[in-house]
């Protein structure tokens, strides 16, 4: 684990960056690549009654607690990769999971 969820970005753009992002985060947090999941969630933003399907990427990283330095490095990595795709704004949010509340196949960490 970590679980990385992309919203407000084209699925094809996620496919362009997911391999590099996972590889680099794996190095930053010393976690095997096969422990990661990447999810793309289609999103519709509504502003003043008008629908907009994208253009403001929002990336959530669900993981066990890491250091501030690691969070900073991962946020910069994700932000840089998405900005390189031509987006102008990126929001990265870290959700820290409690290992004893995380279950895989009925067994907590």
Automatic annotation (TrEMBL):
Protein name: DUF1904 family protein
Source domain of life: Bacteria
Lineage: Bacteria, Bacillati, Bacillota, Clostridia, Eubacteriales
A Pfam family annotated for this UniProt entry: DUF1904
